[in-house]
Design goal:
- By secondary structure, the chain is α+β, with helices and mostly antiparallel strands.
- It has two helices and eleven strands.
- Helix 1 packs parallel to helix 2.
- The longest helix is centred in the middle third of the chain and has 20 residues.
- The two termini are 38 Å apart.
């Protein structure tokens, strides 16, 4: 499975060996962006910055890593069973990024003045759809609009039209449980995502 090696100190060349005050948020943004892109393993480099010299006490950067590892231990068993299908980004787009095409059945809208969102689409072993949303802005939270449209927009026009609704669950990274976000949505939903954070959603399509 794909993995990623991340540096414990997000600002290694600033002279701050223990990391700057926003180190934890920068690491969070890096971790959840990788997860949205389908990464299954996170490795930290280097261990000398995790612990105080000649001690088992964690450095400030080490505590940032420990907090993220605690979430990954809960989230990992779910993500490892998901198949990555596609990845999109919302503006502003950097080299190599692309927006969801207009026919895609789920699209994200972030705040115009923010750094954008990552939208990772997955399929579970249960046949359901999963979506990881990551906030590329590690400085601020932002409101997210999720819009749904039919998965089958391109079917022949003479086919009888059907109604589609979506049941949405959100994964609780503290308890490891799925919580109902919306039992039936026809057009989408909104939520607020924290700085650099990632949220995993499970989406069940109902045909009426």
């Amino acid at each position: 499975p794909p993995g990623s090696c991340l540096e414990v100190n997000a600002d290694p060349y600033t002279g701050h060996k223990e990391g700057l005050p926003d180190n934890g948020l920068k690491l969070r943004q890096s971790v959840y962006t990788n997860l949205a892109y389908g990464v299954k393993m996170i490795e930290w480099f280097n261990s000398s910055q995790v612990f105080e010299p000649e001690s088992v006490e964690l450095t400030p950067a080490g505590r940032d890593v420990a907090a993220l590892n605690a979430e990954l231990r809960v989230l990992g068993p779910v993500l490892v069973g998901l198949k990555s299908l596609d990845v999109f980004n919302t503006p502003p787009l950097q080299l190599g990024m692309r927006e969801a095409y207009k026919e895609h059945w789920v699209r994200l809208i972030g705040e115009e003045t923010r750094a954008g969102l990552v939208q990772g689409m997955f399929e579970g072993e249960d046949g359901l759809d999963y979506m990881m949303v990551t906030n590329r802005d590690y400085r601020s939270s932002q409101s997210v609009v999720v819009r749904f449209q039919s998965k089958w927009m391109g079917i022949a026009p003479w086919h009888e039209k059907k109604k589609y609704s979506y049941a949405i669950d959100i994964f609780d990274k503290e308890t490891g449980e799925w919580k109902t976000f919306s039992s039936s949505s026809f057009v989408g939903f909104t939520f607020v995502i924290g700085p650099g954070d990632g949220e995993l959603f499970r989406i069940k399509t109902n045909v009426e």
